[in-house]
Specification:
Elements lengths: L51 H7 L2 H9 L5 H9 L6 H13 L3 H9 L12 H18 L15 H12 L4 H23 L17
Helix pairs in contact: 2-3, 4-8, 6-7
Amino acid sequence: MFEEPTLSSDSHTGPRKRPPTLHHTPRAQGRAAIPNQVRGTSVPAAPPRLGGLDRFNHAPAGAAETALLACCASRRWALRIAAHRPYPDLGSLLAAADEASYDLSAADLAEALADESSPGLHESAPQAAHTALAAAHAAYESSFRHAFVICLDGVEPAEHLDRVLTGIRVRMNNEQDEERSIAADELRRLARARLAHLVASQSEPDAPSAAHGVL
């Protein structure tokens, strides 16, 4: 299972967890939880509660880019989306993310895929399932030199493992260029799901989703 990193003004270095959430203040350092916290020597009035998209639109550029890199690890993709803020609604943000994804160069795609991890199983899953999935991932990664990426949004949790194993088996028959194209589209869909989670307005983080890397 993964943790949810918050948006901070730190640099792009260090590990990136998925899916990220946002923190409201540009000067926040380290990790802070939602709901927002007030800092200072005096006791100010409680700040207004902003929706997730508002927090994203008003975050410092470096903080927004860092959070975006946790959705898709192409630096060009993250810089482009951060530079076009503010977005009036989630639909506009996701449309911009799609457009940026379609414009990824081969080098951009390679950069993004290099940061992906093949989806794994919860530790409570049967050992036989762990073994089967690990073998399938090893065969795929040996053939294509990058992690197997698949978006499972909209798929029932009980079907996740079968969907991944079937996907690997089918896609192993692809030529390199064809599989690269399929992986790029799955990465685009993953980025959309992660980005929607990033700007979600819930007061508490959502439970981890299998679409983000853990079955």
